[in-house]
Write a structure and sequence with these properties.
Layout: H1 2-13, H2 16-24, H3 28-33, E1 40-45, H4 52-61, E2 65-66, E3 75-82, H5 88-99, E4 103-105, H6 112-117, E5 124-127, H7 134-143, E6 148-152, H8 156-169, E7 174-177, E8 192-198, H9 213-216, H10 219-238, E9 240-250, H11 259-267, E10 271-274, E11 286-287, H12 317-323, E12 327-329, H13 331-334, E13 339-346, E14 359-360, E15 373-374, H14 377-387, E16 394-397, E17 400-403, H15 406-413, E18 416-418, E19 423-425, E20 435-438, E21 440-446, E22 449-453, H16 455-461, E23 469-471, H17 474-481, E24 500-505, E25 511-516, E26 520-522, H18 526-535
Length: about 550
């Protein structure tokens, strides 16, 4: 490892990136000193978790500190060790807290775009380039249980990662879709309230996380990505409703990937820049650049090549002044990664004057069987019998029942258009959206019938339904978490013959999914068990208990 660190240091000191920064800043040495050491581990606490207060108490107890500029609904914390350096019980608990969605491991500066977007409960949000999902789940935390975030990813392998992280977080407001972001449909028809465009980039701000960047980064890489970044931002603007907002962000320091892309958007006349400092006043940062040089792949001024005009710094002061309203977060200023942010507002009068009366589409656009669909009357009857009532926003998909916000059902119900508003697709379907997953997994199915309520969903559904809950003493839950299997007869509240999947509810209101046969056995993951034992002040290793 020491040898590898030495190689990185040599790469950094001789890098083209360092030479490029000397053209972007007057003090590249200061930036370099703050851009080399490994990043500390940082996490974002889920405010919707029942154990939020306990999680933050645990973090404080191991020496973690709050990130002072974070202003989200939960909390953001910096660990007293580098990324991946946790050991022993701390490592076990961190893994369990992440896997069960109590907190999310996330680089601190990566939390900034959602803070700048400032999603509000009830809004319909698009996360255009969503994988791996940390920003999607952060948006969910802002929304609470109302609104929706359409989380899009085009690459199948990254879609799987996105779904995993959305399911881990257990929010009701996320919908995962798979589209080329440059052509994503406008659903809902009026446009999104807000769109996050965290585009693919060269990652020149990630040297503390990805030290290989020192040796690999070249100016031409930013030039090659510029068109994709512009196309993604253009589509984001197109699907945003008038008066809505768009946040464009990268983890790059290169103005070709940042200010040059935003300048093209401003020039199009459909958006204006809102000063980022208004919403991120506590974040150490500098204004965006109004001018920049073009560099060759040696990091020197490029005076030989002919470049497209849109790569050049703007001569129009109207555009230049707006670029200064963007935000640059330099590694050395924030003590972390580097980032770029621009908050754009879609101009109200950009709605055109021509009224279009859409005609019904000649295509049927039926959803495939794999898409989630609202539960039918048979499911309504079965859930009413099993649970006593049926919460709104229930869906069936494969071997699961899903629970979503009402706004997600509203998107499914709503008519939508295609071909620039000329063709009408009736609601009652997802098409043309390709939906992979939505909402919170509430229950599992077996052979097409209701099998069991999922433990984490049970805590939230308890306010909506009456069964299958069984009230017990807290000591029963403690015994089960410590590896004991009490006899069925020890559950006094069970009626004769009553068994199978049940949710035990302790005196403190804590829920534990179990299977009731002759004995009572837990039906939760090991990670869930670790967290529950920690919350209840039990040994993390049940074998250590007497």
């Amino acid at each position: 490892m020491a040898s590898r660190e030495s190689d990185w240091r040599e790469d950094a000191e001789n890098s083209i990136l360092l030479k490029a920064v000397s053209h972007w800043r007057e003090d590249p040495g200061e930036w370099f000193q703050g851009s080399y050491d490994r990043l500390p581990e940082t996490v974002r606490v889920n405010p919707m978790s029942q154990e939020k207060d306990w999680v933050e108490s645990w973090l404080s107890g191991i020496g973690a500190t709050r990130i002072p500029w974070f202003s989200g609904p939960g909390g953001a914390w910096e660990m007293p060790f580098d990324r991946g350096a946790a050991t022993g019980e701390v490592k076990s608990m961190m893994t369990a807290l992440h896997e069960t969605g109590r907190f999310t491991r996330q680089e601190a500066v990566s939390m900034l775009p959602v803070l700048a977007l400032d999603p509000l409960p009830g809004e319909i949000i698009l996360d255009l380039c969503a994988s791996p999902g940390s920003k999607t789940t952060q948006i969910c935390e802002h929304l609470g249980d109302s609104g929706a975030v359409i989380a899009n990813e085009v690459i199948s392998g990254r879609v799987n990662t996105l779904v995993t992280n959305v399911q881990r977080h257990a929010s009701r407001t996320a919908v995962v879709v798979q589209h080329d972001g440059r052509h994503i449909p406008r659903v809902p028809g009026a446009g999104f309230d807000a769109v996050l465009v965290d585009v693919p980039c060269t990652g020149s701000g990630t040297t503390r996380k990805n030290p290989d960047v020192w040796g690999k980064w070249r100016p031409s890489s930013g030039v090659s990505l510029h068109s994709l970044q512009h196309d993604l931002l253009s589509r984001a603007i197109a699907v945003t409703k008038p008066g809505g907002r768009v946040v464009y962000s990268t983890c790059s320091l290169d103005p070709i990937e940042n200010e040059a892309v935003v300048a093209r958007a401003i020039e199009g006349g459909k958006v204006r820049v809102i000063p980022c400092a208004d919403s991120l006043s506590e974040v150490p940062s500098t204004p965006g650049m109004a001018g920049w040089p073009l560099l060759d792949d040696n990091g020197d001024l490029d005076v030989q090549s002919t470049h497209e005009d849109y790569l050049l710094a703007p001569e129009d002061e109207r555009i230049a002044s707006q670029l200064r309203c963007c935000l640059r977060v330099w590694n050395d200023e924030i003590g972390g990664g580097g980032f770029f942010l621009a908050v754009l507002e879609k101009i109200e009068d950009d709605i055109g004057t021509k009224s279009i009366d859409p005609i019904p589409s000649p295509k049927t656009f039926e959803d495939p069987e794999s898409f989630p669909r609202p539960i039918n009357e048979n499911w309504n009857d079965e859930l009413r019998e099993a649970w006593g009532s049926v919460p709104s926003g229930m869906w069936s998909r494969g071997k699961s029942l899903l629970w979503s916000s009402d706004e997600i059902r509203g998107i499914w119900d709503a008519d939508r258009t295609r071909k620039s508003g000329r063709e009408l697709i009736p609601g009652g379907r997802w098409r043309p959206l390709k939906v992979i997953h939505l909402g919170l997994i509430a229950a599992r199915l077996r052979k097409g019938r209701l099998d069991r309520l999922v433990s984490r969903a049970a805590r939230r559904l308890r306010e909506e339904i009456s069964g299958p809950f069984v009230n017990v003493d807290d000591c029963i839950i403690d015994d089960i978490l410590q590896g004991k299997e009490p006899l069925r007869t020890e559950l006094d509240s069970l009626e004769d013959g009553e068994g199978g999947s049940r949710i035990l509810v302790g005196d403190s209101g804590y829920c534990l999914a179990v299977w009731v046969g002759n004995r009572v056995t837990p039906m939760v993951s090991e990670s869930e068990s670790i967290v529950m034992r920690g919350v209840r002040d039990l040994s993390l290793d049940p074998q250590e208990e007497e």
